[in-house]
Sequence to fold (339 residues):
Amino acid sequence: MAWGVGVVGYGQQGRWHAGHLGRQEPDFRLVGIYDPTEACRARAQTDWAGSPVTIYAELDRFLADPAIELVLIATPTTSHAPLTISALEAGKHVVCEKPMAMNADEGYAMLQAATRAGRVFSVFQNRRWDGYFLQAKSAVESGYLGRIMELGFVEHSFAPGSLTYGVSAFRSQWRAERAYGGGMLYDWGGHRVDQLLLLHRAPVERVYCQLVNGHWLQEQDADNGFHIEITFTDSVVAHVEMNTVSLAGVRTAWYVSGTEGGYLQGKLLHRVRGRIFTTDWPEPNGVEGFWPNLVRVLRQEPGAVQGVPPEESVRVMRVIDAAFQSHEQGQVVRFDSPV
Ligand SMILES: NC(=O)c1ccc[n+]([C@@H]2O[C@H](COP(=O)([O-])OP(=O)(O)OC[C@H]3O[C@@H](n4cnc5c(N)ncnc54)[C@H](O)[C@@H]3O)[C@@H](O)[C@H]2O)c1
Fold:
């Protein structure tokens, strides 16, 4: 029997999730949608006319629907923690969009709520499954690079639409506003820091960050880019830099420098007896996706391990918290106990 899904927030991403889970993942069926914005509910009514999907205007009624077993939360960052905790307390399993929350304290409270409720909880860190990332990760894990010294990701793109991407019926520019948990450190940082912590598994010792705000929109008080330096306890240094309103057009994706080799954009440079060889490094095949993995976890299949354990998302939030603090104080933030 397919798992009954309820989607909270029928904006750009919630609509995408509803369509994907409702029509393309056979182990799930869409049964409910909750959105407080009338125009978003109207769009859901049109999209799902003739389907057995109930559209709710009140959260309590949505959470009381026994057919909803898994709640997918796709709302602005500020509401992730309260909605997740309410859904878990109502006995639902929960997948929440990234970034997990406004900060690590909220993230930890979500994790504790899941433990108390005995329900599965995960953050939709879908960029763990991006081909370019899996490629870089398998190059690091191959051992050909020797001891890793540094790694990084730089992307300057001209995508001002990323600040006004939200559905117009709600508040299209919420990503430019701190009050909603906007800004690219939350948005793209939520993906890149997560990827980084999977590429290099050592504890994080310290973080330095500078946010970039090009004041692209008049009301913008959130960043449109960031530079983060992360130092791990084994002295490995990582640099992550993004700007979504830059015409410079620089993109290195993940690069990695090791004592025996380097990796950049699908090419592995390997040192053998003083000579350097370049090899095309393939994307790994057959990696289990987010949803098939979640199904095995929900079914409690023996040996099923969550693709995105919530503890790992709390760790991402701790690094993001430190990055915000570093920017505000203009100095390096060192963790009392490495993270
Ligand atoms: N994983 C990814 O690659 C990816 C991509 C895009 C967006 N996202 C994430 O999805 C989430 C939503 O982004 P979006 O672009 O769809 O935003 P959006 O503005 O298009 O949609 C937000 C929706 O949430 C609803 N909403 C607002 N406050 C609410 C509340 N308190 N309770 C219930 N519903 C509420 C709004 O009515 C709207 O329908 C964000 O967390 C964003 O970071 C993730």
The pocket of nicotinamide-adenine-dinucleotide is lined by residues 8-14, 35-37, 40, 74-77, 79, 83, 97-98, 124, 126, 165-167, 170, 174, 187 (CB under 6 Å). The CA atoms of residues 211 and 226 lie 4 Å apart. The chain has ten helices and 15 strands.
